[in-house]
């Protein structure tokens, strides 16, 4: 049977970035105009981003089993919400963080599990972050991900967006937060040196095309993967599955399966080359802009590169949660 969880409401995509005192001054001077100084989605590249649905009284939760709605009480979703604390920043030498992003994109998110034996609401596990202290709003909860019976969804997708408004950049003084939490600063661990990534010859040519799925999926096997992420294409409805084997916080092998169009497979193959040998912290900062120079062509009207990187981020998020458990 197929189990589907759909949440309709406001989607949040918020990120924290370490910034210098000089950048703090620029943010205080420019305010919202600070976003215009870089390409629109650059702020998503931080490894402290939280993308999910705001869980509040306005969101609607629906559960279906084989396309038939089943009763579900959503009141307990936020019960075990965790306070957002990124210790690798609190224990670093960083002095300031900038909060960037948006929290008002009205849309819906869908999680699907295939081949489930039945439905038991107690088998849901919700990963919810509490942003109260940072945003200054009581019970500001963001539903980041969901598991059912211990398994992450086979596919995760979103749609129906009505647009969003970027929040005013906000500065967080980490020294004040450290004093409040009683955290002593430690020397940061040495950075891992990534293996060399082949340097691209130059930007790929821009082309136009349609998202037409090809007959055979592209499969790149990974032995004993310990991080898996799946992201669906909103156009062709096929998905990209990214599998990683992470050893000592470095991506030792990358692969999986791409089932969509030829361009999506090119993006997937390029991603596996891009991340292999890189530390996890560096992979968190990657975006579709990093992927494009490795592609034989760029199709600006298709979002396959964005969805492929999205599958990577879901895999990294799953691995990070298991590490923290």
UniProtKB/TrEMBL annotation:
One of its GO terms (molecular function) is iron-sulfur cluster binding. Residues 226-324 form the NIF system FeS cluster assembly NifU N-terminal domain. Residues 191-210 are annotated as: Disordered. One of its GO terms (biological process) is iron-sulfur cluster assembly. It comes from the Bacteria. Pfam families: NifU_N. Signal peptide: none annotated. Transmembrane segments: none annotated. InterPro entries: NIF_FeS_clus_asmbl_NifU_N. Gene3D superfamilies: 3.90.1010.10. This is NIF system FeS cluster assembly NifU N-terminal domain-containing protein. The lineage of its organism: Bacteria, Pseudomonadati, Thermodesulfobacteriota, Desulfovibrionia, Desulfovibrionales.
């Amino acid at each position: 049977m197929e189990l589907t969880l759909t949440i309709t409401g406001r989607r949040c995509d918020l990120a924290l970035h370490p910034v210098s005192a000089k950048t703090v001054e620029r943010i205080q001077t420019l305010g919202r105009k600070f976003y215009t100084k870089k390409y629109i989605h650059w702020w998503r590249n931080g490894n402290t981003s939280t993308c999910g649905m705001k869980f509040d009284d306005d969101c609607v939760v629906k559960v279906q089993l084989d396309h038939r709605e089943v009763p579900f009480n959503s009141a307990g979703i936020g019960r075990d919400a965790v306070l957002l604390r990124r210790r690798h920043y609190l224990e670093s030498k960083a002095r300031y963080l900038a909060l960037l992003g948006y929290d008002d994109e009205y849309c819906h998110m869908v999680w699907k599990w295939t081949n489930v034996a039945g439905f038991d609401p107690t088998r849901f596990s919700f990963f919810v972050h509490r942003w109260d202290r940072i945003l200054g709003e009581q019970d500001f909860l963001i539903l980041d991900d969901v598991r059912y019976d211990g398994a992450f969804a086979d596919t995760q997708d979103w749609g129906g967006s009505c647009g969003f408004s970027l929040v005013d950049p906000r500065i967080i003084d980490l020294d004040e937060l450290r004093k409040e939490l009683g955290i002593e600063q430690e020397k940061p661990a040495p950075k891992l040196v990534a293996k060399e990534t082949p340097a691209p010859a130059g930007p790929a040519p821009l082309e136009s095309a349609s998202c037409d799925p090809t007959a055979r999926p592209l499969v790149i096997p990974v032995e004993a993967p310990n991080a898996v992420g799946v992201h669906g294409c909103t156009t062709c409805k096929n998905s990209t599955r990214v599998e990683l084997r992470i050893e000592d916080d470095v991506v030792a092998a990358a692969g999986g399966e791409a089932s969509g169009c030829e361009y999506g497979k090119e993006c997937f193959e390029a991603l596996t080359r891009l991340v292999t040998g890189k530390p996890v912290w560096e992979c968190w900062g990657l975006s579709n802009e990093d992927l494009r120079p490795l592609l034989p062509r760029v199709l600006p009207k298709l979002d396959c590169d964005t969805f492929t990187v999205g599958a990577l981020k879901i895999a990294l998020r799953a691995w990070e949660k298991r590490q923290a458990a």
